[in-house]
């Protein structure tokens, strides 16, 4: 016998499908919504529907956008000869927060992952190759995560781009700011050494 009304159980199921939210977290969110006034809940539901219905993928970079071409791709002040390739739209936000990168982006919407049955056809590689083939790109920065799937994806893309003669770079990674060498694993130290630069 269900403890709560069917509508509450169904909403909990929907929240539990979101990444990083388990059944307990989903129930907490639902009970929080139940405590809000009806107008706030309607506004919340409306915002979710509007976000889904009023956004598309940018024709150029594949990032989420309210129009055919996103503001970053339209920005004439940015360096249109440099592309930063990221796995997800949230990675664009992370790079933008540093306020140093002035090039364009390409969002793959995933990474190649044999263990999760994600092949090169499941990510937006075709669109990336078309952009590079059109010309005008001098460097492609591969900014996928430094894990097995991210490295696999970066190596695959680097191989695909070799015939185009563009410079292909990978984000340096190693010791985090405030980290201690004694607590770092061997691979992190090795990558930090490889990515070292002159002062």
What about the largest sheet? Answer: 4 strands, parallel
In whole angstroms, the N-to-C terminal distance is 67 Å
Architecture per CATH nomenclature, i.e. the level-2 architecture of the largest domain = 3-Layer(aba) Sandwich
Helix content estimate: 40-55%
How would you portray this structure in words?
It contains eight helices and six strands, in the order αααββαβαβαβαβα. The longest helix has 16 residues, at 38-53. With 199 residues, it is of the alpha/beta class. The protein has two domains: 6-53, RecR Domain 1 (Helicase, Ruva Protein, domain 3); 77-173, Dna Topoisomerase Vi A Subunit, Chain: A, domain 2. α1 (6-16) packs across α2. The strands form two sheets. It has a four-stranded parallel beta sheet with strand order 4-3-5-6. Strands 1-2 form a two-stranded antiparallel sheet. 16% of the residues are buried. The chain starts with 5 loop residues before the first helix and ends in a 5-residue tail after the last helix.
Supply database-style keywords.
single chain; Dna Topoisomerase Vi A Subunit, Chain: A, domain 2; alpha/beta; Helicase, Ruva Protein, domain 3; two-stranded antiparallel sheet; 199 residues
Concise account of the structure shown:
This protein is an alpha/beta fold. The protein is built from eight helices and six strands. The mean pLDDT is 90.
Give the helix/strand layout.
Elements: H1 6-16, H2 23-35, H3 38-53, E1 56-57, E2 64-65, H4 71-74, E3 79-86, H5 89-97, E4 103-107, H6 125-134, E5 139-142, H7 148-161, E6 167-170, H8 186-194
Parallel strand pairs: 3-4, 3-5, 5-6
Antiparallel strand pairs: 1-2
Helix pairs in contact: 1-2
